[in-house]
Specification:
alpha+beta; Helix Hairpins; 2 domains; five-stranded antiparallel β-sheet; 5 helices; elongated; transport
């Protein structure tokens, strides 16, 4: 019974020693979470005063910052608690590399969509000719620029194509 009593005593001591670190880790995470929530609310107030064409871009940036702060806060909180996060960080780095490589076409279309929304080389209602297709711009999102072609057809042109090919823009009258 002495071995079992010693084990329980050691467990109690180590738990008591870990409580301040666990508490501090939760506080660190909550600080990052509060910062992310405050940033998101301020951005949403600002977004209502912006040009409607720029809102999706600012919304994407806001979501990226929010989730980035929550992730960094979680990892920092775990590190403060005493958890060895070096393997977690290495795993996130390798996972990010693998996902980036696997999704390179989608990411290139996303970045091209962001640049199109940022620089606005054409507007809704303009007639575009790109990669042999001609149509009127009806929608611009992060993946595609949608053109209304002849006979009611819809042409979804990947935004990466918009950057790798020449585009002829005829402004709406």
């Amino acid at each position: 019974m002495t071995v079992q009593t010693d084990y329980v005593h050691q467990l109690t001591l180590s738990t008591e020693a870990a409580i301040p670190g666990i508490f501090a880790g939760f506080i660190v995470f909550l600080i990052f979470l509060a910062g992310a929530v405050v940033f998101r609310r301020l951005l949403r107030r600002l977004i209502n005063r912006m040009n409607p064409a720029k809102r999706p871009l600012v919304n994407l940036a806001g979501d990226t910052v929010y989730y980035g702060l929550v992730t960094v806060g979680g990892i920092t909180g775990l590190g403060t608690m005493g958890v060895n996060v070096s393997a977690l960080i290495a795993g996130l780095g390798l996972s990010g590399f693998a996902l980036g490589f696997a999704l390179r076409d989608a990411v290139s279309n996303l970045i091209a969509g962001i640049l199109i929304l940022l620089y606005q080389p054409f507007q809704y209602g303009d007639t575009l000719t790109v990669a042999g297709d001609t149509g009127v711009v009806t929608d611009i999102n992060f993946r595609y620029t949608v053109l209304a072609g002849q006979n009611g057809t819809h042409i979804h042109v990947p935004n990466g194509t918009m950057f790798s090919n020449s585009v002829t823009v005829t402004p709406k009258p």
